[in-house]
Design brief:
Elements: H1 2-30, E1 33-34, E2 46-47, H2 50-67, H3 77-101, H4 105-121, E3 128-130, E4 140-142, H5 145-166, H6 172-191, H7 197-217, H8 228-242, H9 247-270, H10 283-289, H11 294-314, H12 318-340
Length: about 350
């Protein structure tokens, strides 16, 4: 399998690495840039078309993975892969239009909802979860179809939004998604019995695209992903379901950003604000306003996500994973409450 793994990762990585500077130049020439000021603190106009490189690299690597001679255990896999590519294409186009035309929030939401619905139609939905209170590896809690559909839509929209809101500091969203994708790859390739090689190729394609983009997006960024955050966010949410509904695994990796999103929505609503309007009240912005360097914050997120991702792979009993989720939730909440009291300065 290592040849297939290497080829899929290499295509995603190489295409993203090569196309990212091209997208940077095209964005600058067309004026599709983020100007200095606002939430970001970059010093010059920076292209927002990095999402094009991410999308092309991911789709090409996934297409290659479908042509490779690896065992395929799921007869529904072609339909799920088609839905993955269709949903990812929808959110990519929505993000690209937003970069060019600055779409209203309702249009962005409808596009994401359509992509999520396409994913559910393509059998990318959470049908069951493993019973954390049973030692039987086959013990599962199955959901009614209506609940499974609603939960899956909520999950896909939630992960897409989480990654999009995480894209506030150079390299933050791409690095976190790369870590989560590598954890999903390791789970499918080495932990599942029997191993699911064809499924493992999909998150490997996403991690390759993100890591190839990262050298151009790490601080100081030469290109931003813009609406590409929707692309990799949706792909991560869908892949966590395709890989055997490993929702708890992904939650352990992106737990802090996800709780940050939930906390900010409740906080903004309580204060009479609009939840979808961006601001500098995200955890990473609060740390930045406290005087922390961008790279320290981003590397700290990487370390945190990698630690809990490794924990998700290392913990065999289901009860321990549940305890780890509860501990992560408590730790993240304490961190958010602490950040609430940090002094802020104007951007």
């Amino acid at each position: 399998m290592w040849g297939a793994y290497a080829a899929t990762f290499a295509v995603g990585f190489a295409l993203s690495l090569v196309l990212s500077p091209v997208c940077a130049r095209v964005g600058e020439r067309l004026g599709i840039v983020d100007w200095p000021g606002g939430r970001r603190q970059h010093s010059r106009p920076t292209s927002r078309l990095g999402g094009v490189a991410l999308y092309v690299a991911f789709v090409a690597a996934v297409a290659l993975s479908q042509a490779l001679p690896v065992p395929r255990l799921d007869p529904n896999e072609p339909r799920r892969v088609l839905a993955l590519l269709a949903g990812t294409s929808i959110v990519f186009l929505v993000g690209l239009l937003d970069d060019v035309l600055d779409l209203p929030a309702w249009a962005q939401f409808l596009g994401q909802l359509l992509a999520a619905a396409v994913g559910v139609w393509g059998l990318i939905f959470i049908e069951y979860v493993n019973n954390p209170f049973s030692e039987d590896p086959q013990a599962r809690i199955y959901f009614p179809r209506w609940f499974a559909v609603g939960l899956s839509l909520f999950w896909l929209l939630g992960v897409t939004t989480t990654v999009n809101w995480l894209d506030g500091l150079d390299g933050l969203a791409a690095g976190v998604v790369a870590i989560a994708s590598l954890v999903l790859f390791a789970n499918a390739a080495f932990r599942l019995q029997p191993p699911q090689a064809s499924v493992a190729l999909l998150p490997l394609a996403l991690s390759g695209a993100c890591l190839g983009f990262l050298p151009h997006n790490f601080h100081p960024a030469r290109v931003f992903m813009g609406g590409g955050a929707y692309t990799i966010g949706y792909a991560l949410g869908a892949l966590s379901i395709i890989g055997g509904a490993k929702v708890a695994t992904v939650l352990l990796v992106i737990g802090v950003p996800a709780l940050d999103v939930a906390y900010l929505i409740l906080r903004r609503m309580r204060r009479g604000g609009r939840p979808h309007v961006g601001g500098r009240d995200h955890l990473h912005f609060r740390l930045l306003d406290r005087g922390w360097p961008q790279r320290r914050i981003v590397l700290g997120y990487y370390a945190f996500c990698a630690f809990f991702g490794a924990l998700a792979l290392a913990l065999p009993p289901r009860q321990y994973k549940l305890l780890a989720l509860l501990a992560l939730g408590a730790l993240a909440l304490a961190l958010l409450l602490r950040a609430e009291r940090l002094p802020r300065r104007q951007a």
